[in-house]
Amino acid sequence: MNLDDLRNQIDSLDSEIVKLLNERINVVLKIGEEKKKEGAEIYVPSRERAVFDKIRSLNGGPLPEESAHAIYREIMSAALALETDMKIAYLGPEATFTHQAARNKFGVSVDYIPTSTIAEVFDRVANRAADYGVVPVENSTEGAVTHTFDQFATTPLKICAEIYLPISLTLLSRHRKDEISLIFSKQEAFGQCRAWLAGNMPNAKLSPVESTTKAVQLALETPGAAAVASVMASDMYDIEVLAENIQDMQGNTTRFLIIGQDFSAATGNDKTSVMFGVKHKVGALYDALSVFKADNINMTKIESRPSRNKNWEYYFFVDIDGHADDPEVKRALEALQEHCTVMTVLGSYPKAEM
Ligand SMILES: O=C(O)C(=O)C[C@]1(C(=O)O)C=C[C@@H](O)C=C1
After folding, report:
1. Is the domain covering 3-83 a CATH 1.10.260.40 domain?
2. Do you know which InterPro entries this protein is assigned to (predicted)?
3. β-strand partners of 108
């Protein structure tokens, strides 16, 4: 077959694909109407998980799994945008790693609202200026993003999904490497490439700013300056990449949370996040955590933060395997309540792939 014949074949396949996509969208619009009648959530992480799993099992190749996933991410992004005027608040400005995480989760068709603080993401979702919010919660090299944990102590919002994003840091500048005397970045990003900077840029002064994007803006306008930021920022601001992959740990990954008004439905492969406080008495935390062991529930994380009510009093943030509707998790959470001065289930949501 010659090139023209092959392209004719593609033309007729494309017309089938577009027809089928629109048929799918017509069904999505009906789903959107039903959800509005029932007051149900538009974004349904549990259903998206089922769609992605189904596509993976249907796809026999040669289309790579990652490509099938990306295509379906955008198909569902278009669906979300058509079902409602979906708005996603994220810790901005544009081109931050949180922006990237939000785009990986919700695609390009929905509207995005960049905010300047994590608290503002929570506010936007709480006062319904945004449907969902995306915030960083922990990094594999640098640990907890404490601002996010602290917000959960005062908000009724729930975690409805999570996402892991591999973080690759780049050194960006208009100048040559040997001309750089000042480097801007976010404190957390500096922490993730501390050894590389000490080894490769030992004489440059490090200046922490609010975001990696702000760092790029400052690097563009400051003589002799560079920024540590994402590759996305270099494309968006047209600034040269001097060094790539400068993070000290090659598996450097950040976990982000999607916050909304409600939990996600159970999928059979979920995680539940709980926040609680215990009395100041011998073995109080041990007793509280023993409820998980009693029901054979795996704990995947624990973090403690000052309660901000009283000095030296703490809130514990724990993640466990399972959904709050699973019988053993339900039982364990009821038992946990007995050991706590305060306790809130922050959300149950599908476990993300790393
Ligand atoms: O099944 C739904 O609830 C839909 O809205 C459809 C759909 C999809 O396109 O498959 C779109 C968005 C939801 O987050 C989940 C699935």
Report:
1. no
2. ACT-like_dom_sf, ACT_dom, Chor_mutase/pphenate_deHydtase, Chorismate_II_sf, CM_dom_sf, CM_II_prokaryot, G/b/e-P-prot_chorismate_mutase, Preph_deHydtase
3. none
Apex 158 CA angle, 157 and 160, nearest 5: 140
Query: Which residues fall within 8 angstroms of residue 209, CB to CB, at 6 or more apart?
Result: 184, 185, 186, 215, 218
Quote the pTM value. 0.93
326 within ligand 1 shell (Cβ under 6 A): no
Per residue in 161-194, pLDDT (tens digit) is: 999 999 999 999 999 999 999 999 999 999 999 9
| Residue boundaries of the structural domains of the chain | 3-83, 87-167+253-259, 170-243, 264-350
Residue with tokens 């060094």: 243
Q: What is the ipTM of this complex?
A: 0.98
- pLDDT, tens digit (0-9, with 9 covering 90-100), for 305-333: 998 888 888 999 999 999 999 999 999 99
Which residue is closest in CA terms to ligand 1's atom 6?
28
**CATH C-level class of 87-167+253-259:** alpha beta
| 222: its two tokens | 């400051």
99, exposed or middle or buried, with CB in 10 Å at 0-12, 13-18, 19+? buried
CA of 80 to the centre of ligand 1 (A): 7
Amino acid at 206: L
Ligand 1 pocket check: which of 28, 132, 258 to mutate, most ligand atoms within 8 Å of Cβ? Answer: 28
Q: How far apart are CA 290 and CA 287, in angstroms?
A: 5
- Ligand 1 in contact with 80 (CB < 6 A)? yes
Distance 160 CA to ligand 1 centre (A): 15
Task: Tell me the three state secondary structure of residue 5.
Answer: helix
Phi, psi of 113 (to 5 degrees): -120, 105
Output the CA–CA distances (angstroms, integers) from residue 137 to 142, 310, 312, in the order listed.
11, 24, 23
Ligand 1 atom closest to the CA of 47, numbered from 1: 15
Q: Is the separation of the CB atoms in 237 and 118 below 8 Å?
A: no
